Amino acid sequence: MTIAPNKITNRKELLIARAKERVADLKRLQEAGLICTHGDFFPSVHYPPITMYSPITEEELFQSYTLPEDGLLDVYIHIPFCRQRCIFCHYPVQLGERNPEKDQYLDALEKEMDLYMRRLGIDKIKARSILVGGGTPTYLSLEQLDKFLNFFVQRVDLSTCTQFNYDVDPVTLIGEEGRERLRLMRSYGVDRLTIGSQSLNADTLKKMNRHHGVKEILESIENAKEFGYQVNIEFIFGYPGQTLDNWIEVMEHAVSLGTEEIQLYRLKIEAYGDFQGPIKRLSERQPDELPTVEETLMMKQLAIDILNEHGYHENLRRVFTKERKHYSHYADNQCCGLLDQVGFGLTAFSSLRDRFILNTQDFDEYYSMIAAGKMPINRGIVRNQEEQMRWAIILPLKNRTVWKSYFEKVTGGVSLNHVFRNKIENLKSFGLIVEDEQKIELTKLGAFFADEVVQQFHHSDYAPFSRDEYAQGLLYPYNNCEA
Ligand SMILES: C[S@@+](CC[C@H](N)C(=O)[O-])C[C@H]1O[C@@H](n2cnc3c(N)ncnc32)[C@H](O)[C@@H]1O
Ligand code: SF4
């Protein structure tokens, strides 16, 4: 059935009018001090933020650590090679074919796994879930991919694993070689793919310096589905050259592709890791190309409305699925379950109950530490009880729900009814969170500004922006910071 053009215009007008409501919310919440005055954001992914950790030794980090009773760990592997640099990307990666270096890296990774297992006193890792990311972890020859998966499954018990996910780019999944890769990964038990589609607009993909067009994205999704993978596709909004109109088209196209999940990222221009990607220079050179903060937030609301209309609902923050069971187990276990997780590879991290361990970002240091028999760790933290309380509220609140009984368990007996009361009451008064006897959750409005809401629970040393970047309203993040 074709829809009359005036109907389309009306629907679009309606979508845009709804999205504009978020601009009014932005202004109100900036005045209240929740959101910084320039409107930039800082993604709350870990607490304290990963860039703020100090150097610390392996001995200090593992002192008195014991494995969880069930012995289960979520496992992350990082493979930092890519064909070419995407403009928006802040990750340290090696570019181009580099086959000898990839072999060197895989050898080091294998040794790192052994060093880590020796440190934990185990000879096999009982995996709860697995995520292999990068970089482009499929940007390996078929032989290298096979070599990696082979040594990986020798060290990891898959019988307890509920999900084996790979983060991939579309190009490595297409053509005969791509299909061979898909077959190979499936034979090792990989069952979910997160495909970095980024956009479905040819111009935007070009401006991102992606090495593929729309056609390759569509082919990769079809291939992945054919081999029986659960498929998640990722999009960036707020990118130079994006408009409300072309973004609506991208989202309408995305929901027609029948993937289980769709994930949204707001463009981060200023890196929050140690490495600054090319996007900063580009946005300074061509500021007019960049959507405003207001337009960017409207894009987010437009996407949410289109996704909801087509049966996709926000199941984990920023991840929209049709069925509740389709979400990243790795992310859910880490952010909501607060469960122990180990990471291997350059920049990989481990989250082990009250401690956070970060690997080096430097390739040479990575190789030389492993060659010397040392874990390639260079930063981390062992949280004290107060920081543990903040962590136990920030990650689950952002992503789903803070269960009061669970908070009490992971903080060694602290009742959520007795801590952070000023913050909680203030956030309730702005309609950003709701609370009952069992739990605290974000409202729809709170979920829209989830990063800023959970940053209310940061210690003032870890506020993402400086004091003069926020208005001094009731939600000024430097007020009432005590637990
Ligand atoms: C770890 S990256 C790797 C993805 C994979 N290499 C690819 O590009 O297809 C995971 C996702 O983070 C998002 N991302 C990366 N850099 C970003 C930035 N500067 N701002 C917003 N999102 C970003 C992208 O959507 C990307 O797919
Ligand atoms: S976005 Fe992905 S493919 Fe592009 S450079 Fe970064 S890690 Fe590589």
Structural write-up:
The chain contains 17 helices and 18 strands. The chain is of the alpha/beta class. It folds into 2 domains: 32-48 and 384-483, Arc Repressor Mutant, subunit A; 50-335, tm_1862 like domain (pyruvate-formate lyase- activating enzyme). α1 (5-31) crosses α10 and α4 (142-155) runs parallel beside α5. 44% of the residues are buried. The model has no long low-confidence stretch (mean pLDDT 95). The site of S-adenosylmethionine has 18 residues, from β4, β7 and β8. The site of S-adenosylmethionine (SAM) has 18 residues, from β4, β7 and β8.
Mean pLDDT: 95
Query: How much helix is in the residues?
Result: 25-40%
Any idea how many domains?
A: 2
Specify the CATH architecture of the largest domain: Alpha-Beta Horseshoe
What features would you highlight for this structure?
about 475 residues; alpha/beta; Arc Repressor Mutant, subunit A; pyruvate-formate lyase- activating enzyme; 2 domains; 10-stranded mixed beta sheet; 3-stranded antiparallel beta sheet; 17 helices; about 40% helix; globular; binds S-adenosylmethionine; binds iron/sulfur cluster
